[in-house]
Specification:
The protein is an alpha+beta fold. The chain is built from five helices and seven strands. The protein has one domain. It is 26% helix and 29% strand.
Amino acid sequence: MAKIKPEYSYVLAADAVTVAPKKISLSIDAAEVTALCKRLGITDIRDFEAVIQSKRMADGCTIHISGAVKAMIEQPCVVTLEPVIEPLDEIFDAYFLDEERVSSFLKAQRQKKEMDEDALQERELPEDHEDPEPIIGGKIDVGELVAQALAVGINPYPRSDEAKKRNPDEPIYKDPDVKVFAVLKDYKFPEGKG
């Protein structure tokens, strides 16, 4: 199986994470910006700032990664296609545990679920620290956490100032002779479809 190269990567060695919190400022290069923009369906990422903090929890096994990412995101307006530049400010945190321990943890959760089906209906979702991600190969890619935070923080419906001024009930085409679906009247469906 081919390994997929991440668009943005910053790898931490799990063994290097201690109980003393450690802050790291991350940067991004032009190739990573291009790759992330393609992945996220945006035009540009400017003024990128990301800070993460790593800390091993008191149990000695679980690693907590928290952080924040700030940037100016450029993407096309959903109405006019004009460029829209908006600030993004997103925080995130995640918990990690050795791959073997995560599978044991999941097995214990399944066994508990099987033993008490009635209680399952009343059970709340686990907190993040109760449902950790696996540490694979002794490494944690915090760059992927930053990429995910960017994805979550992007406005899915950016609107330019011009689009915000428009009355949503007003048709985009003001000419009464323009029929937006007229092009479809002569459409021929492929044989056996439609």
